[in-house]
């Protein structure tokens, strides 16, 4: 169970790093009269990208942090905090696996690092889930809003799916480690 939790936590940590860096949080949608199909627009936490026919990719970092909408600033902060906490939780899990003593009689002496890693993984999974789900909800809401013009409608990007998957793995790893401590 410790090794499975370590693998889930490691993959969840890598997924959190990838979701934070990926520019595909919001992807342009082709609906109604929007017939510009040779251009795909990606919007991420750090940059916007335009892909033309899948051959040419142009990305531009946001010019000013002060010009960003407040939700995007909050999502950046949450994802950066989640990245740092995921790395710390993974290192605590490694230490917990290493310092757990197995005896021939009775139950093993579980290291307190296991509990700390479990709580940190649970917190990290929650921190990743908030901005990813909030962004997904706003994309769906805007997609079905008749007030939003068709060229401004977006679809769910790959980074959201990576974020949801990594959040699930982090929550599973945290649950495993907390269960080990409580046994």
Labels describing this entry:
4 helices; tight junction; Butyryl-CoA Dehydrogenase, subunit A, domain 3; elongated; structural molecule activity; alpha+beta; 183 residues; five-stranded antiparallel sheet
Q: Could you characterize what this model shows?
A:
Helix 2 (70-99) packs antiparallel against helix 3 (112-143). A hairpin with a 3-residue loop joins strand 2 (39-43) and strand 3 (47-52). With 183 residues, the chain is α+β, with helices and mostly antiparallel strands. The mean pLDDT is 87. The chain has a single domain, classed as Butyryl-CoA Dehydrogenase, subunit A, domain 3 (Up-down Bundle), CATH 1.20.140.150. The longest helix is centred in the last third of the chain and has 32 residues, at 112-143. Helix content is 58%, strand content 13%. The chain has helices at 2-21, 70-99, 112-143, 158-182; strands at residues 26-28, 39-43, 47-52, 56-61, 154-156. The protein has a five-stranded antiparallel sheet.
């Amino acid at each position: 169970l410790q090794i499975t939790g370590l693998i889930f936590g490691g993959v969840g940590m890598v997924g959190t790093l990838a979701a934070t860096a990926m520019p595909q949080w919001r992807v342009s949608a082709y609906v109604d009269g929007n017939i510009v199909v040779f251009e795909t627009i990606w919007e991420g936490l750090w940059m916007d990208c335009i892909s033309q026919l899948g051959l040419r990719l142009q990305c531009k970092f946001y010019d000013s942090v002060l010009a960003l909408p407040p939700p995007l600033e909050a999502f950046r902060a949450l994802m950066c905090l989640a990245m740092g906490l995921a790395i710390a939780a993974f290192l605590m899990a490694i230490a917990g696996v290493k310092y757990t003593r197995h005896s021939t009689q009775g139950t093993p002496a579980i290291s307190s690092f296991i509990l700390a890693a479990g709580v940190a993984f649970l917190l990290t999974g929650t921190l990743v889930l908030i901005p990813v789900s909030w962004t997904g909800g706003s994309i769906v809401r805007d997609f079905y809003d008749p007030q939003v013009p068709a060229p401004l409608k977006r679809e769910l990007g790959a980074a959201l799916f990576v974020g949801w998957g990594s959040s699930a793995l982090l929550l599973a790893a945290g649950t495993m480690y907390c269960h080990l401590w409580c046994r």
